[in-house]
């Protein structure tokens, strides 16, 4: 099969790799029908995730069709169309019993495209298939389902829920990439009074406004003053960091009000300064987290019911064999305007049947 392979920092190749096979009774083999590229994949290519070894097939988000299943798989079967979650769960360890699947001790967690071969390929082996893939309703198309593999549960769990967004809140989201834009949608589920988005790219600010943000501004503007003006001088109730660089995290701590919550979602590859000399007296809560995908069934139900939509988020579409071109476009998002990219095989090109 063909696959996108990490060859060390700054190096990747689209090349032949061995077809995956069942290695454990709980495995499933999935033919990839649609796949996407994550900002985390770019972090890996930069060398920010040293646990990823050379020769690894990248990718942790996909929709596909089960072509083989181990004897221990009971919840899904050959022929089922499924969402492949970015998180794999053994279902048995202490953390999985708590619903913290991202911290799985039994061989799961974030392993696809990280510790084992991932989804940016024609086929993928998915361990613990009963708890790591989700059968898709007929009215949810591949393109919409891709958003549930990572970005929507990440924005919802690590951003909105960790940030404790409540009705009437002022929410600041720093970063209007796919995760930041998804955080707009998931924050709106809790009826905040205002959502303010900060991003340096004008196309992304426009996308934020299109998705329902009340204000979108650049980081070179007086962000703290704008936030105070929209919050009766108090500051943000919730600040969601969705970039992963020191400046954006520090901006979140500058705009948060006493008693507020800073929810860090971004993947950081460098240290950030924590200004405790300012924060110690402000009763501020700072949260971090890796997505658990415990909310994926809930989000999938909402998507199928037409209660969750992110129109316009996928800006570029490619065939699966155009993976290298897709990476080039996504890695130059400031020039290309790319938000989220989808790649399809012929099997995954059926038109969307859902309104999203």
UniProtKB/TrEMBL annotation:
GO terms for molecular function: oxidoreductase activity; zinc ion binding. Its cofactor is Zn(2+). It comes from the Bacteria. InterPro entries: ADH-like_C, ADH-like_N, ADH_Zn_CS, ER, GroES-like_sf, NAD(P)-bd_dom_sf. The keyword Hydrolase does not apply. Residues 8-343 form the Enoyl reductase (ER) domain. The keyword Zinc applies. Keywords: Metal-binding, Oxidoreductase, Zinc. Belongs to the zinc-containing alcohol dehydrogenase family. This is Alcohol dehydrogenase. It comes from Kribbella steppae.
